[in-house]
Structures are given as structure tokens and as C-alpha cells.
Amino acid sequence: MKLTVNGVEHEIESAPLTPLLYVLREELGITSPKVGCQQGGCGSCTILVSGEPRRACLLAVAAVDGSEITTLEGLGTAEALSPIQTAFHQHYAAQCGFCTSGMVMAAHAYLENGGGTGRESIQEALAGHVCRCTGYVKILDAVSAAAGGEVASNQRWLPQPGEEAPVEVPGAPA
Amino acid sequence: MKAVGARLPRYDGVAHVTGRTTFVDDARVPGTLWVKALRSPSHNADIKDLDVSKTEAMKGVHAVVTWKDVPLLEYGHLSALGIPADEPLLAKDNVRYKGQPIAIVAAEDEETAQAAVDAINLDLEEQPPLFDVRKAFDSDAPVVHQWGNWYPHFEGEMDRRQIRKGSIDEAFDRADAIVQGVYRPAAIEHVPLETQVCQVVPEADGRLTIYSCTQALYFSMGVVAAHLQVPLNRLKFVGGTVGGGFGGKVDTATETMCSLLALKSGRPTKWRWTREEEFLCSSTRAPWHMEIADAVTKDGWILGRKMLTLHDSGAYSRFSPYGLTKHSFHHTGAYTIPNLHFDGYVVYTNRVPTTAMRGFGVTSVSFAVETHMSRIAKELGLDPFEIRLKNANRKGDTSPNGIVYTDPSTIPTILAVADELGHELPADYRTMSSEKREGELLPEHLVGQIGNSEDH
After folding, report:
1. What is the second-level CATH architecture of the domain A83-147?
2. For chain A, is the Cβ count within 10 Å smaller at the N or the C terminus?
3. DSSP codes, B185-254
């Protein structure tokens, strides 16, 4: 079996019925998809198969033999975040971070498919993704901001070496 | 003070959104063995026989650990504070809750480990279980703990947390009405997205490296060192990255057992609970039973409160005596009541042991108190905001345990809620502040309780 993961082709040695999640994590060492429930219920293992969000825990690797897989490692890098990654960072949509990989992948697919800023359609796109920290509001804000083009793709919002952290004080003179 | 009021980037934000945060489950250690536990299938039973010989002989099984292998079997979560221990790391003579670990194995992979657990011979003699915290006090209730059905080791070997303030009898004699209520919030599972997980690596120098998802790293270090009877410098904890805890990762759930298996097998070990284990066997927020009787005047002053609290600790004590202590200090909520008679018990049942969860011990009493305030208003035909504002803590008022409030925030909070809801208030209520009581806001029954913050 073969998989193309984040643009790199791999020969797969795991047994055909091994969940894709285990193949990614244990055979290929790609750990952004998380083991949350192994029942398709939490969404933290979500990856893209040919651009569509799927639950890696419920997919036998044989069922996706030859496919193009994208994980969070395949979006932007720390130096050049993608718009949805920037939006999650700037809107504090990641707290403990455990559900974040799956959330970002589902949100990325939503944007790629032309999803808009409407709250209801974002909720629909993220249905089945469980987050216990944020209460979802910040996640919805982040996706909405990215859909509205309010974030630049390469914005890091992190101090460069030798710089102080950027500080925005609400109400302070510019 | 540059950070106060500022929007600062999360220090771990970029790592989270790029998938580069290393959780415990993401550590990659070659040669790692998988851990599984034999858990009690019964809520309450005596252990008649436990035989692991068949399991130890199985191919792919590298270590099996039972109570016999634990250097210090019982070490309480509050032992460091001098509170006696009551819970064995692995069950010895009996099991007290469904899911309690009895034996643990380390094997080549997850399937082999599960097969090894299934091959353990366990013989139990069922005992009647107890699930309701209130029924623990019934005369025909089964006794489910070696100390009886409630914790007997508060200071001075008292069997309850007790508060007495003012004169409760006088308050009830003077009351226009007595308002009573019973409040029973249920158990809540924390449901962190990351289940309990631990990786332990036995190093060449004899130390153990412990990758832990604990919320309380140094505390867990002490617990592991005590059970293993090794000095702290034999343990290197790697932690601080927690995939959600909410209090559910304060108890040391996996680190000690993974360490014992790593020492016995000489191999790295890893234990990741399934979602089913997390729901069935991990600690929860406690269920509570609270009875309140308030002596009130017809114009809405609370003269006195009698309260009984039963805190369901589950099968063992863990942190519950601490949780009940916090609860007792807060049993008047954000309001000032000068005459108090409070009794609180940490009660044992055959539920999973309960633990901290967001506002340990206090959310239960806040729920009860706020519901009760509305009940008083309803029974007296008064406005629920006005009765709260009247009795709200002000500077100089004293808490149930005698602390003088110096900066209470009750009144601005209630006014803000009224504002948000568009709830109309008379001018004398709308302009209330947290300043010291005087005039009509200092009726006779509150005079004696006013304190001086400089005394503390």
C-alpha cells in the first residue's frame, strides 16, 4: 500500500485493517492527529483525504490506499502560518491544544470549499468536534475571521529574536 | 504591569496551531511496552483469589504487578499534610468501586496486554453496594469503608467539618419564617479530550523519566516516590502539557503503576486509557446532598442558617476532606449570615473516588445557596435581587470562619447582572455599594458580626 502524506509518498507496512490514525502516528511518526476516543465521536483525529475531512480513527488504511492525505503538519509552518492557523492563534481558539489539530483541519476544508462567515454554516462544518476548554465561541470567531479574510497568511504574531512581545492595550493611544 | 489588560499571544499558541505541541502520547520511545489493567468488574466485593501465574507465563508479557509488588501500598493524596491513607494503589483484600485497578501488565503491544489481563484468574465474593450519599447514614446501610461510612480524621479526630457562629437558637426563635431546601447536584465527568496517559522510561543511571499529563507535577512526583520508596532524585518528571484536565488530572492515576512495570520489566512502558476507561474509571466531580434551613424575617434578612452537607467521596478519601473544608468556609455563599450551625461529612459510597473540578467543593454550595436565595424571595414574596443586595457581603462583614472581608465584589456583580437583564431596581438598591454597613443596612442582628480587617 502507498499513501501520499503532506506531499511525501510512503510505502505502508501496517496490516490493511490498521486504522489510518495508527499508521500516521505509529508507523510514520506524524502525531498531530490525536487519539481522543477511537470511536469517531470527538474529531481530534481529523485529517483530509483528497481535501475532505475524515476521521482517521475509523478509516482502515486499505480503504485509502493510494490517497493524498493532509495533516496539520501539511498546512503552514511556524514561520509562515496559513490563514486558518493565524486565525486560531490570534483569536485564542486553542487552549489546551488537544482538539486543535482536528478543528483546524475541518475549518481549513470549510474555507477551501468556499465556506463563508455565517455562524450556522461554521457550526455545521465543525459539528462533531468536541472542545472542552474554549466553549467554542473563540473557535467560531477564528473561523469566521479567516472566512472574512481578516487575517494575513504569513502573520506570526510572535516576537522575533531581540524584539519585545507585541502588546495591544485596549483603549491605549496608538 | 505591561501585560495587565493587554492582548498577549499565547506562549504555546503557534505550537498548538502547527501540531508541534508534544503531548505525552506524542513522545516516541523505541521498545515501549503497552500497559493494561485488570479492573474490578464489581462495585463492592471481597477478593477471594487472585492468580496471575498464567499471565506471567504468556508470550509477549514482560511484567505483571499486583499489590505484592508495591513497596508502600497505601499512600493518601493528602498524606503530606498528615492525613492518614486509606486507598491501596492496587486492590488487596477487596474492591470498592467498579473499575478499581487490581493488577497491571506490560506487554509487547496493546492486544497482547489485553489478552494477558483477560487471562488473570480473579475470584470475587460480591458484597452489597452503596451508591447514594444520603443512604450511607441509614441504619440498615452496608458499611463500605474500613473507617465506617464517613471520614473520621478531621482535626481532633472529629468525624465532620463543623462551624458554629453566633446563636442559632436565638435566630430561629426570632424568625418570621423558616425556609428549607434540599439540593443534590450530580456527579460530573471531566471528559478531557486527552485521556489519562503516561510514559515511563527506565534510564541507564537507574532513574526513571516519567512523561506525565498531571495537573500537579511536583505533587505527583511525591506520590510516586512514596509508593516506590525512592528519593525524589530518582525521578525525572516531564510534564506541563496537559490535554485538558479541569481537576481530573490532579489525582495521580497512572504514573506510579507505569513506573512499577518499567522497573520490573526494565523496559519503557506506556499506558493510555481508552475513552471507555476514562468515563467508567476516572474520578469525577462529587455528587452532593445539601440541606438548608434559614431563619428569615419578613422583610428579607437572613438571621441564621442550619446546614447539613454530605460530600460523596466515592470509595476512598483522596482530596475530599480538603474539598469539604473549602465548601464549609463558603456555605453562606456571597452573603452575610451572623448565626450559623453547619455540619459537613465526607461520605464513602461505592462510586469511583471523586476529586477536584473547577471550584473544588464550592460550586456545589454556590448552586445550593443561589437556588435557596431565590426560594426565600419567592416564599416571602420579595424581589430576588433586592434580597440578595441586602444580605450581600460588604466591607467589614465576616465569613463563616471569621475572616473579615476587605474587598467583596458581590454588590457590583449583582447590579451588573440586573443591568444586563434589564431588571428594574428602586433607587436605594440601585445605588448600593460595598462600603461598610450603616443605617438601615446595619440592623441589630448584624451589629455584632462586624469585624476590623486590621485584626487579621
Report:
1. Orthogonal Bundle (1.10)
2. C
3. PPPEE---SSPSEEEEEE-TTS-EEEEE--S-HHHHHHHHHHHHT--GGGEEEE----S--TTTTSS--S
Whether residue A168 contacts residue A116, with contact meaning beta carbons closer than 8 Å, is answered with no
B454/B456 Cα distance (integer angstroms): 5
Element (H, E) at B245: none
Kindly report the nearest CA distance between residue B302 and chain A, in angstroms. 36
* Amino acid B6: pLDDT: 76
Which chain B residue's Cα is nearest to A156? Answer: B14
Interchain contact B15–A (C-beta under 8 A): yes
Domain spans, chain B? 155-186+284-455
ipTM of model:
0.92
Q: How many CB pairs under 8 A join A and B?
A: 120
B280: chain A residues, CB-CB within 8 Å: none
Give domain limits for chain A. 2-74, 83-147
- pLDDT per position as a tens digit, A47-77: 999 999 999 999 999 999 999 999 999 999 8
> CA of A98 to nearest chain B CA: how many angstroms apart?
5
Q: Is the alpha carbon torsion for B114, B118, B122, B126 positive or negative?
A: positive
Q: Which CATH class is domain A2-74?
A: alpha beta
> pTM higher than 0.90 for the full model?
yes
Fold of B155-186+284-455: Aldehyde Oxidoreductase; domain 4 (3.30.365)
Contacts of B13 in chain A (CB under 8 A): 88-89, 92, 94, 157
